[in-house]
Every structure is written in C-alpha cells, then in structure tokens.
Amino acid sequence: MPNNKITITGDLGSGKSSVAKELCKMLGYEYFSTGSIQRELAQKRGMNTLELNYHAEKNKEIDRLIDERLVAINQEKKPYVLDSRLAWHFVKNSFKVYLTVEPGIAAKRVLKDKKRINEPDAKDEAGKALNLLERKSAEDKRFKKNYGVDCADLNNYDVVIDTSRSTAAEVSELIIELFSKWNSGKPFDKFRRAPSGKGSKSAR
C-alpha cells in the first residue's frame, strides 16, 4: 500500500494490543507498543501504571524515551502497526485508528488479562473501571499539557471503532478494509461498530 503505517490508540481495555498484534499477523507488519515500555519502566521503579503516569507529570524522562523512538519510526520505510496513545501525533502520515469500548467490558477484559503487569489493585469490575478511567484522564491531562494535543478529541483520527462485542480478528479485518479505502482515497463512514460473529468473544 502507498502508506504502510497504522497507529492504534483508544480507550484502556479496548483491545488495542490484541488488535495491533492481529493486524501484524495479517499484514506482516512490525509491531511496536509504548504500553509495554511503560509497564517495564513502572516495574523497574516499583510503581504501577497509574503511579507512573502521575510520576511522569513531573519527570519528562519517561515521555522523552518513548517520543524519541516514535520519531525514529516516523522516518523508517518499514511497515508498522503502532500500539500507542501518541503515535498518531508523531507518525503524521499514518492511518489513525481510535478504538472505543464500554467501561464495564473494558474492566472485565483487563481483570482477565493475566499478562498485564503493574496494574493498580481493584477488588471488582467497578473498581477496575474507575482505575482505567482515572489512568486515561491522567494520561490525557499530561499529553495536553506537554504536547498541546487532546487525545480525547475524535477529530484527530481517521476512524473510530467500537470493539465491545467483537474479536480482535473481526476488528482487524474491518481496519484492513478501511485502511485500503483510505490509501486509495475512497470514502467510508468514520464511526463504526466492528462486526460480531455468532458466539464470538470480545477483542481481548
């Protein structure tokens, strides 16, 4: 395709990582995740991800390490799917995808995902939903202050997809379809609900 960069961002628990990895399998693209870097940095500092976000408000080193890598990718010819809250901002000529999810479903996904490390403690789904909303609010506030960009403004993205009741494969197939249209200049509806097959599991 003329453009070979897809940036994936969205609500916490919307299946960003699962979808990005599935896209890489389908397209043969390279995978990059800033979330993985953040969790590693949090673990090294003895923090959870929410604590790291508040720490990063006063310590620019966290964002600088990630920003430098994104800027470098922006110049590469290699195809990438980037799972990152700010890749859409740094990788200018990319297909910008925002994934949404219902808060309760997001909480269930995160609680079930045993691979996620350094998550804030939560006793139940309601508590986890509040954790996710607080973390997203802290990130949005920091990014708006440091970069002058509003990640919550859906005008920044090429397509917005609700993943609440779809598998990662179903979401990925829709993204590839729209990516092809975007590359060839064909029109498509910006706000979409990913299709859901009979008996399918959600994006995580």
Average pLDDT level: 83
Overall number of domains: 1
> Any idea of the CATH class?
Alpha Beta
Please work out how many helical segments DSSP would assign. 8
Content of β-strand: 5-15%
| Radius of gyration over all CA atoms, rounded | 16 Å
Per the CATH scheme, the topology name is: Rossmann fold
Q: Would you report the number of β strands?
A: 6
Secondary structural class: alpha/beta
Helix percent band? 40-55%
CA(first)-CA(last) distance? 28 Å
> What summary fits the major beta sheet?
6 strands, parallel
Sheet with the most strands: spatial strand order: 2-3-1-4-5-6
Unreliable stretches, pLDDT < 50, 5 or more residues? none
Spell out the CATH superfamily.
P-loop containing nucleotide triphosphate hydrolases
Describe what you observe in this structure.
- This protein has helices spanning 16-27, 34-44, 49-56, 61-74, 87-90, 103-112, 125-147, 168-183; strands at residues 5-10, 30-33, 80-83, 95-100, 159-162, 191-193.
- With 204 residues, the protein is an alpha/beta fold.
- It has one domain (5-193): P-loop containing nucleotide triphosphate hydrolases (Rossmann fold).
- A six-stranded parallel sheet has the order 2-3-1-4-5-6.
Characteristic key phrases:
alpha/beta; Rossmann fold; 204 residues; single chain; 6 strands; 6-stranded parallel sheet
